[in-house]
Design goal:
With 272 residues, the protein is α+β, with helices and mostly antiparallel strands. The protein is 32% helix and 26% strand. The protein has a domain of 69 residues: Arylamine N-acetyltransferase (Arylamine N-acetyltransferase fold), CATH 3.30.2140.10. α4 crosses α5.
Length: 272
């Protein structure tokens, strides 16, 4: 799978990066910081019972040229295409999300993440983990606190399993568990089908949006809009009606809502 040069140029314009591009750590860190600031995490399509298409053409049309965001299979699917076109050696992996759960919980493998093999060693890059997305490439080295433009991260290793963790205040919280087994397109097709269509998928029952902006993260969960500043303070605001929610999606997340009447109707049903 390859992307035309025009699509690569459009991607870098979309994320606001005009610096040098090469298969090196500097480029990877620039992408890790700029991508989740510009292309929001969002689940509008599953929420509106719309299909989630993972073909390269669809990812470019939606996330790069369509004023939209997406969730992990879309975000990291697009990122994989870009990185491979630049010349990075990329291995797609899959994780079990345990964010806000007991980290021992056995969940399905529904998170796409990428390992990139640099000359100095392997790193993980992930632009698709919503409100806890790492904004730098992370060395696959256990038990080392790693700084990012936002919160510190680390990995804890237990045998063949790696646990990605983010430090919130003084607490280390596990985001997902993974191993180094390469994934195939069919693995993501099945997981994407489950995540976007299964009745128990939380992406079908409530809004989940996030951006990692310089100095702050913003998120929308249902009707609660939150700003998490890098100084550790959080401001939360409960939105009172559907129009207000849609306006926040458009203004704060920069999303071109695909079907505004349908989204207003869906939000009205949820509030009833």
């Amino acid at each position: 799978m390859t992307l035309p040069g025009a699509d690569i140029d459009a991607y870098f314009a979309r994320i606001g990066w005009s610096g040098p591009v090469a298969p090196d750590r500097a480029t990877l860190n620039a992408i890790a910081a700029h991508h989740p600031a510009a292309i929001p995490f969002e689940n509008l399509d599953p929420y509106l019972d719309r299909p989630v298409d993972l073909t390269p053409e669809a990812l470019v049309a939606k996330l790069v040229r369509g004023g939209r965001g997406g969730y992990c299979f879309e975000q990291n699917g697009l990122l994989r295409l870009v990185l491979e076109e630049i010349g990075f050696a990329v291995t797609p992996l899959s994780g079990r999300v345990v964010w806000n759960l007991d980290p021992e919980t056995v969940t399905a493998r529904t998170h796409m993440v990428l390992r990139v093999d640099l000359a100095e060693g392997p790193v993980l890059i992930d632009s698709g983990f919503g409100s806890a997305v790492p904004t730098a490439a992370l060395d696959l080295i256990p038990d080392i606190e790693q700084a990012t433009p936002h919160e510190p991260f680390r990995f804890v290793r237990r045998g063949e399993e790696w646990r990605a963790q983010i430090r919130i205040g003084e607490d280390w919280r596990t985001t997902y568990r993974l191993d180094q087994t390469p994934q195939h397109e069919i693995d993501y097709a099945v997981a994407n089908w489950y995540t976007s269509t299964h009745p128990s998928s939380h992406f079908r029952h409530g809004l989940t949006l996030a951006r990692a902006l310089p100095g702050r993260r913003i998120s929308l969960r249902g009707a609660e809009f939150a700003t998490h500043s890098s100084d550790g303070t959080t401001e939360r605001r409960s939105l009172t009606d559907s129009e207000q929610i849609v306006s926040i999606i458009e203004r704060e997340f920069g999303i071109r809502v695909p079907d505004r009447p349908a989204l207003l109707a869906r939000l009205g049903q949820a509030a009833a």
